[in-house]
Amino acid sequence: MYGGDEDAPKAVSPFVVGSIDQIDVDEEMANNTDQSDSKGNNGHPNSNKGKGKWKLYVGSQSLGFRRDHMEVLSPFKDGVVANWDIVDSIWDHAFKECLLVDPKEHSMLLAEPSSNNQQRRER
Q: Where are the alpha helices (DSSP H) in 1-123?
């Protein structure tokens, strides 16, 4: 993050996140603990769990530790934002954890390619 007032940026953070599918982790833990007693979930490890639960790790310190089942994701595809949830997580981390400011008190200027269609501009 660089505002132009200093000689160097106040904070540097990667624009990727680490992601772990909580269902996979819960399934593996259930398999390890239920080896002696396999009942209780009707034989299906995801019977009581919703799909799409992800734990995101944002920032260079969070990404520096090895975690089983972690995948490093970028919110961009072909130079265009493809996953706004990841971008929101990164911006939230940048403002609150790196810069220690309230994002509601600071404006942000975004630029987009002039070739974007209406569907991509909706967010």
A: 22-33, 60-63, 84-93, 118-121
Q: Which residues contact 106 (CB under 8 A, 6 or more apart)?
A: 95
pLDDT tens digits, one per residue of 74-99 = 999 888 888 989 999 999 999 999 98
Q: What is the pTM of this model?
A: 0.66
Instruction: Report in angstroms the alpha-carbon separations of 67 from 23, 28, 87.
Output: 15, 14, 22
Under a CB-based contact definition with an 8 Å cutoff, are residues 14 and 62 in contact? no
Give, as one character, the DSSP assignment of residue 81.
Answer: E
Minimal CA–CA distance to 52: which of 85, 81, 91? 85
CB 53 within 8 A of CB 21: yes
The pLDDT tens digits for 6-47 are: 788 778 888 899 999 876 556 655 555 443 333 333 332 222
Q: Which residue shows structure tokens 């954890």? A: 97
Structural tokens at position 30? 């259930």
